[in-house]
C-alpha cells in the first residue's frame, strides 16, 4: 500500500533531506580531509577545494549527481588546467518549475 501523497515506485526523497548515501559519502570525504589530506598537503588548483566542492555538490544535487560532478571536477584538477574559482552549478528542480496544470480529481 502506497503512503498518502506518493505514487508506487517513487523513491526521490523530499528536498533538503539528507539520505544515508549522502551521509556516507560526506563521511568518506571527512575521513579524507582528516587523515589523508594533511599528509599530501594543499594541492587543489581550484577554489573551493575539491573536497569542499564534493560536499557541496552532494548536498545540493544528491548522491549520484553530486558524485558525478565531483569526479568531473577532480579530473580537471591537473597541472595543465589553470584552476581558479569553480563553484558547484546551481540545482535546477524540474518538479517545482513545471507548468503542467494540476488536476484535483
UniProtKB/TrEMBL annotation:
InterPro entries: Membr_insert_effic_factor_YidD. Keywords: Cell membrane, Membrane. It is found in: Cell membrane. It is a peripheral membrane protein. Pfam families: YidD (PF01809). GO terms for cellular component: plasma membrane. The keyword Membrane applies. Its main location: membrane. Belongs to the UPF0161 family. HAMAP family: UPF0161_YidD (MF_00386). Could be involved in insertion of integral membrane proteins into the membrane. This is Putative membrane protein insertion efficiency factor. It comes from Spongiibacter nanhainus.
